[in-house]
Specification:
The protein is mostly helical. About 50% of the residues lie in helices and about 5% in strands. It has one domain. Strands 1-2 form a two-stranded antiparallel ribbon.
């Protein structure tokens, strides 16, 4: 029996799966089902796309309005980030942790968010996470997007329109997912370098038992490094809808992946996949699963934890070697 199951209130069956596109054997059906679950079903990817389209069609100012600093255009950008983030983080937190709508069904870690604990700002895990998410995270997220939009408006960043090249316009969306996976892995590895961990990343890792507000609860230095992923828009021709998709994908997706629950369960039915056991393992064991399941960086560089007891023992041995060296 795999002893790893005993360490969790709920553990998904089988091993953690990575994108089959990068497996040693070509499995067409598995690859199709993997991408269908991202793009043709309700997922955080399709949610990010829907939010980006709604923002672009109904609320987004023209690119030219970002040419000069003004409260209307840049304030709208901030609200387009703040409102959906708080809506989803607050709503999911209320359902899972305040109302306890599904009790501990599908909850990885049985513990509730910490209170009266001096590790956290305000001695409260949720308030700590909300403070760093809103005051630092959403602010720096918006600031980087504002720099890109100002640059687009002033001719310093390439702009792509749908009529100009509809095929490439569509391809930019999956390209951004691949870029985000690459960027996140290497920035995350850097943040686990002991000096950077102590200075910045330790704040995010206060959250061993994660919740919806933990997703982008980070030190400002980590937020700055994390949101340098937006600099790809200075190289890759894109539009405001791509930029908004990029932001929602990078910032609203972590609400769900850090929810602490694998599935959303409402009215005695599984309504949606939600949590990310791959990343939950990272918060439990630290020195593993630095990247995402989208690309196998961890498998390629020897830091993959597949959720088994054997992987836990290997991760602990690797941590011991790292700290002894």
């Amino acid at each position: 029996m795999d002893k790893e199951s005993d360490r969790w209130n709920y553990k998904p069956t089988g091993k953690v799966q990575l994108n089959p596109l990068f497996s040693r054997s070509i499995r067409i059906r598995a690859i199709f089902e993997w991408y269908a679950s991202y793009w043709f079903q309700l997922s955080t990817t399709t949610l990010a796309l829907i939010l980006a389209l709604l923002a672009w069609v109904f609320f987004f100012p023209s690119i030219s309005s970002f040419q000069k600093l003004n409260w209307q255009s840049y304030g709208t950008l901030y609200l387009l980030n703040l409102v959906p983030h708080c809506f989803f983080a607050g709503g999911i937190h209320h359902w899972l942790y305040r109302y306890k709508g599904q009790a501990k069904k599908f909850k990885f870690d049985a513990r509730d968010p910490a209170r009266d604990n001096g590790v956290y700002t305000f001695r409260d895990q949720v308030k700590d996470n909300m403070f760093w998410t809103i005051c630092s995270g959403i602010t720096l997220w918006t600031l980087f997007q504002a720099v890109v939009l100002w640059s687009m408006a002033n001719g310093f960043a390439p702009v792509l329109t749908f009529p100009e090249n509809p095929i490439f316009f569509i391809l930019v969306f999956p390209i951004l997912i691949v870029w985000a996976s690459f960027h996140f892995y290497w920035i995350h590895r850097f943040l686990h370098w002991p000096p950077m961990y102590r200075i910045a990343h330790a704040l995010h890792h206060r959250n061993i038992n994660v919740g919806p507000w933990s997703g982008i609860s980070m030190h400002p230095i980590e937020h700055f490094l994390f949101y340098t992923n937006f600099l790809i828009h200075f190289i890759l021709a894109s539009s405001p809808v791509h930029l908004m998709f990029h932001g929602y994908m990078q910032s609203i997706h972590p609400i769900f992946s850090h929810s602490g629950f694998e599935k959303l369960y409402v009215a005695d039915k599984e309504r949606a996949s939600m949590g990310d056991f791959f990343h939950q393992l990272h918060h439990r064991y630290f020195e593993c699963n630095y990247g995402t399941v989208e690309m196998p960086w961890d498998r390629w560089f020897g830091s993959f934890h597949d959720g088994t007891e054997a992987a836990t023992l290997e991760t602990r041995a690797r941590k011991k070697r790292m700290y002894e060296s």
